[in-house]
Amino acid sequence: MNILKPYTDQExxxxxxxxxxxxxxxxxxxxxxxxxxxxxxxxxxxSTICIHKGEEPVISGKNGICNVFFSxxxxxxxxxxxxxxxxxxxxxxxxxxxxxxxxxxxxxxxQGCKSLGFVSASHMVPQMVMxxxxxxxxxxxxxxxxxxxxxxxxxxxxxxxxxxxVYLPDFKYGDNELGKPFSDVNNYFTVALKxxxxxxxxxxxxxxxxxxxxxxxxxxxRHLVLPLQVxxxxxxxxxxxxxxxxxxxxxxxxQYHPIANVMDHPALSRSITKDEYxxxxxxxxxLGFVNGWVQELESNTEYLPDFNFNNPxxxxx
Length: 317
Fold this sequence. Notes:
Structural class: alpha/beta
CATH class: Alpha Beta
Oligomer: single chain
Radius of gyration: 18 Å
Largest sheet: 9 strands, mixed
Shape: globular
Helix content: 25-40%
């Protein structure tokens, strides 16, 4: 049996001095500068910590998940609903110490959250590790959820084995074609597929829940259906069935809603239609996917966060 080596705070800090944490491989010195693609330094670069009750049922549970939203991203999706915090040219971070971050997380855990999620963590793995280690040092062991865009470095994921309880990656595109115009990346499909295979190696196809129905181990793949991109969704689903397994837990999402940035875009200026979604759902069924969730078509108006609020999903101060 392999003994997994802990990812220590010192190792995490050292990784920031020559950052190749994500597939961008910037080799940036995030401690002293200059910075790399994500434009984040060695700070914690958190935009929001909040309780989120709108994730998949096994992720949110009855009391919601405590989500830590990192600022900026190693993708720059032009349609991102978290655009207020994900754009690398903006300053969306709050200056927080590790102690203050840990205190806030524990406050939410005390309110009944069983899981601690890290959103857009692909470029912030060292900081995520430091936060998890700090929470553990305080005697708390929530289920750790790694919520990513799928553009993850395989070697980094291997180092996280044993630390992450649930992987929650996107699988955005069924080939490399759409990655550049939509997300500013040439090799999304190639890299994301390798990343998902590594997550699958660690977790297998099953999602294991506790007595209250909250996921305590497993992997759930998300795919967002985009307007005029039925072929992309079909290719993505076929890849998942062929390269992983139709037994995986899949979250098929209809929530796409055009943000101001794409209101004039020829392909992204509207939500998806009933006919588009039905074609993708039919393919889902024909491929034998039976585990997971399919959103209602009307969900496109239900998941519109505003990060000007302390809780961007409930829009409360």
